[in-house]
Amino acid sequence: MNSDSNMPNAKMLDMLHFDDQGLMPAVVQDWRNGTVLMLGFMNQDAVGHTLQTGYVHFWSRKRKTLWKKGETSGNFLQVKRLFVDCDYDTLLVKAEPVGPTCHTGSRSCFFSKIVDDEILSKPESEEANGTIFDSLYEMVLKRKQDPQADSYVASLLKGGDDRVLKKVTEEAGEVLLAVKNHNKEEIVYEVADLLFHTIVTLGHCGIPVAEIQQELGRRFGQSGLKSKLES
Q: How far is the C-alpha of 219 from the C-alpha of 231, rounded, in Å?
């Protein structure tokens, strides 16, 4: 993002296609795991301020004014990347949320599930959020809380540290062998197994996948051997 002293390129802003009211929708995602946090509307000023400050700004259709997300609550959205669709009429904002995004206190505004002809609102629900890793973690927690006799995950968790860690060690070894064999399909299969059993380990320890994503996000772009991650 540009610094406060640099105004966005006017020519670039003119390339965006706003509707008859001078607005375009802006979808905001958590840059670490892809969770859709909210949908807002931006006019040219909102886009400009978002680019200039590095914080998401919207145009309030109700109050007819520019506003910075979090200016009252303190729950800001720090911009990491900004994209526009192929028609140049919809924005995708990759952002790091500071606190919950929704005014209800939920991480995302999308927590109401449509089932048949009903709308089920559960502010604490994470069903619409995150990636397959988050969904797998939720499954592990369910097996932990309500173990079934025929559940593989439940049997691992029942075995405690030794059983859980033994599988991680075994799967790590399988990855090493697959890489040495230079077999792409085998590598994909074994890495998937390792990731799955790592998520089981996180569930066993009660550490959400989100905390791993946050740590990776903290390291991202840092140079040097200590961070282990570079952009």
A: 10
Query: How far is 231 from 220, CA to CA, in rounded Å?
Result: 6
pTM of the model: 0.69
Comparing CA positions, the residue from 97, 116, 117 lying closest to residue 107 is 97
Nearest to 29 by CA among 81, 69, 71, 74: 81
DSSP character for 86?
A: T
Spatial CA neighbour of 162 closest among 218, 201, 194: 201
pLDDT digits (tens, 9 = 90+) for 101-160: 999 999 899 989 899 889 988 877 667 677 788 889 989 999 999 999 999 999 999 999
What the chain holds in terms of domains, given with CATH numbers, is 10-97 (3.10.20.810), 131-219 (1.10.287.1080)
